[in-house]
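Just scan my protein:

——
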Amino acid sequence: MSTNFFCKRVVSVSLTNVGLMFEISKTPMNFLRNARLLIFRSFSSPIQHSFTVSYLINSCGFSPETALSASRKVHFETPERADSVLAVLRDYGFTNTHISKAVSKYPSLLTAHPEKTLLPKLEFFRSELGNHVIPSYNFLKSVVMVNENILRAFKNPFWISCQNYLQNTIALNIATLEEIGVPMSNIRSLVTRQPDVVSRNREKFSTTVKKIIEMGFNPLRLSFLKAVEVTCQLTEFTFEHKMEVYRRWGLTNDEIMLMFRSDPSCIRSSEKKIMSVMDFLVNKMGWEPAAIARYPFVFYRSLEKNIIPRCSVRKVLQMKGLVKKDLCLGFLCKGEKDFLDKFVVKYEQDVPELLNVYQGKIGILELGFVSEKGDKTVVASQLHSSK
């Protein structure tokens, strides 16, 4: 992919933005104007739109069906304004395909004022292209990124507005990662997904990388860059505070760090989320905190949509003796269909109400499960109150 072709791809998106901005600029309309438009749309005949339809077909390459549909959103009886709009767009290098796509999405673009509306926006996009987009493209190409990754990277606004001086910082930080053996494929992924991480001050970035190595992360693993990412995005105070929240549940620093090494994202979870998940799994389901720490993904699963419904099903199956009591938390990370097949559909003959339990339509108490010792009644009551 050449720089010229890439620029056309980016500018074609910008042209769509021009159309969007034009639509937004027309938004403040009073009631009478809206009412007049509604009446016009309701009672205008196809004959009144015949010129607009013909123009869209002949000048914009629309099919008759597309032209008729677009004519319901824009109407003009002379070609001068629309011709001027198309001339301006073509002067800026837009192809017929680009123009057709933009006009099909924003038909009223053809009625925009060329000098007052279009030119200022096109000049702005041209400036952005030359000052930010093209330099960013050339930089990404220089770090051996394939075209698909470059296009994916540009979905992040960071690269649209990236200042040139940041590219030097990013290059140095990439070099730091390469020196310690981080695979280039992993680096590309980080640059694409989280460019703000590798744009950090070089000294601070190097300190973070060293810290992650000291924590026992392997630079060859994806989890290494995930840990770098999380650590860069949290202040030291916030990181330590999250450690303290986990310690409240009796976890040691070693257990917490083992959990962090397994899945660094667990430190991102809010204090409220950590506390609510631990409260449910420890106090209502009876799991030991150390056992929960072996499955850190639970701290970014939805308590209401994932954890409680699945644990409710599990508890019913345990009460019926259909699954073992020491079932690990791995069932919480299964896909929806996989979970339903393995824990709901499989046992629907034994427990017909199981799907209703999973969907929250019926509580465990309503199923009447009571053990001789009464301990299951307590757990069932706690599950019912959690919902």
Summary: Confidence is low (pLDDT under 50) at residues 10-14, 20-48, 370-387. Residues 114-142 form the longest helix (29 residues). The CA atoms of residues 173 and 202 lie 6 Å apart.
